[in-house]
Amino acid sequence: MSEGVIVGQENRLELTRASSTAGARERTGGASPRIRRRRPRWSGLVWVLPGLVVLFLFVYYPLVLNFGYSFQQSNIFTGEQTFVGADNYVKLAGDPIFWRALGNNVLYAGISIVFQVFLALVLAAIIESLRSHRWRAVLRSVYFIPSAMSLTVIGLLFTFIYQPDGGLLNGVLGALGLDSLQQAWLGDPKTAMTAIIMMSQWQGFGYSALLFAVAIQRIPQEIYEAAALDGIGPFRRIFSITIPLVREMTALMMIVTLSGAFQVFNEVMVTTGGGPDNSTQVLGTWLYRSGFVKNDFGYAAAIAVVMFVITLALAIAQVVYANRRRV
Amino acid sequence: MRKRTTALAAGGVIAMLALAGCSGGGNGSPAAADVDLSNVDYSGSVSVITRYAGNYESFFQEMKSAYEAEHPGVTVELQQESDQGYKDKIKTLTASQSLPDVYFTWPGNYAEQFYDNGVALDLTDVIGPDTEWGQTMAPSAIGALTKDGRTYGIPFGLDAKFMVYNEKLFQQAGVEVPTDLDGLLKACDTLSAAGITPMSFGNVDGWPAIHFMTQLNSYDVPADVLAADYKPDTATWDDPGYVEALEQFSDIIDRCTTTGSGANGSDYYSQRDAFGAGQAAMFYVENLEFGATVPEGSVAANDGWGIFKLPAASDAQGDLGALTGAPDGFLINPKAKNLPLAVDFMKFVTDKANATALTAELGIPSPVKDSLTDENSTPQLRESIDVLQDANSLSIWLDTVTVPDVADAYLSGVQGLISGDRSAQDVMDAVKAASEQAKG
Prior knowledge:
Distance between the termini of chain A: 10 Å
Structural class of chain B: alpha/beta
Number of strands of chain A: 2
Distance between the termini of chain B: 38 Å
Strand content of chain B: 5-15%
Number of helices of chain B: 20
Helix content of chain A: over 70%
Oligomer: heterodimer
Structural class of chain A: mainly alpha
Helix content of chain B: 40-55%
């Protein structure tokens, strides 16, 4: 933070020197052969224009089109589109699988907040409180490694872990004498969604912990030293110093986690595809199934609009919060 | 990553619709009136997409090389996808009006979507039953890709479903090949009592159960009722045979499999491997998978194995001579730049020499007559084709013969039946509701 300020000051000094030199040249009648003309203010726009065009073409324009399509019924074979008013939204309101999918997203969000925000924060605090620098680095890497793995690979891995016959989880439960807890984890509608969510937590947990670790490292050590001198133990230091001083990161992580929970797709597709009996459908997979399997692209567009509204609301909350809490 | 993928999925829908919105359309397939196979312009390219990626991809690679070698001015642009990958990709290509010149299809409603919307060439004049090319094919295979007397598809592989069984395990338990459903269930009880897993079964993808249901529906529902219910306009789905078929399937799962109510969490291919490893006495499988199910040198191969049709209940009201199966096929995009070339490529792929090679290399039986020989196939594969040829009718997969809403209701409903969350009647209520919704 302080380094940034110093660099900024140096830059300002450089600018001042440059402008005073230019001013001197103007005063001397522009005798210098290397006179720089001041560029018009809009000239910078030329450089960002290609990016804006691409962004408009591939993000904003399709977004607007999608709103239109959610009021139409489309035949993908002929390209014919029929205006159906709010029919797709009426159908959505009466579709039990849509509500189940939304409920699964909410469940996903709730569990993710617990694991990827609160538990990740506690884990990061514990890791950063270790005396050994080497162990801190090792543990950060160990927890982060799942985040570096492809979700497809993780999905396949957990399919084997969750297999009812010969799966690792049931094997461990059997070895511990907990046979009654053995399940067809992904095959039972009662356990399938939770099993997928837990797989996702395993993957994302370390990444969140790493971000929290970075935030914790920015807390001045003097505060901890003062607390230690006052006789405050390591456990209380986590709750009285670490957690309050990383609240900005906590808030950010909550919003990012919530937003991600409503866009979940891969985790479900690579494990259950939304089954069994639609018990693991989430908005993303139900959108996909409605469009790509059932050919109902108007309805799929309506689901996409709902997803957009939810994630936009969360994004706005994020921006508003960031503006209010900016240091 | 998560965010990006979902955005891509949603973006895909949007982009497809955007592109689809730019193009015109029409109903009814154009006819191949101007396809003169005696005067093909062997220049340019022909684009082909198949669902034979992975273990099966070598055949089309060889076809591409051979065709290009025979016609140096031609390039075959080949894309091969997995089963599920194909289902996804073909929708995207269709919506963006970018269908390749030659594309794969399953028969039934799946193929009819393409015929009915004019994106499949009417091939009656080139491969209809009375044509020279059509005469080289099994009539049932041509028939499966024909609608209202017009032939749209080029049959490629003959696919039918059979129960494979381990002869040694049957012998150990003193079990005979069952001839009716009751006999099958009793055989399962006897095998279980002998400490042998009667049948391996995994249903994480949903379709393995649907293959059972296709066969059981054909047995339990009169053929004319079944045919009417497969058409969206006339479907009622109220024959009691459907509920009986679901209850019979439920009995098979309960008494024959160890995965039982957990079968939805078990992978089909792991269970297929379990049969090959001699860990189960039976497995319900497509004949084109015989080679993968019982590889040479596997325990099941050494134990000896045979096949039989899934047996029907003795009081079944439907067609006891029906067999679950259907030919895989290919359609031609009427907008192909060089239509005769596209058709000619598939004629090349399905000539007798290549059809024989298809079976020899991949174990896929071809619909081309006399392509199955003692040299290129196993006795079990030849037996399966004999049964197929003797069948009264071929029952097309339930998830491709019905409209997508009904197929989806069946797929999820049967998963619910397996897990014990739905009754047979619940499943049929959901199917009926989906059918009504599909009528619009």
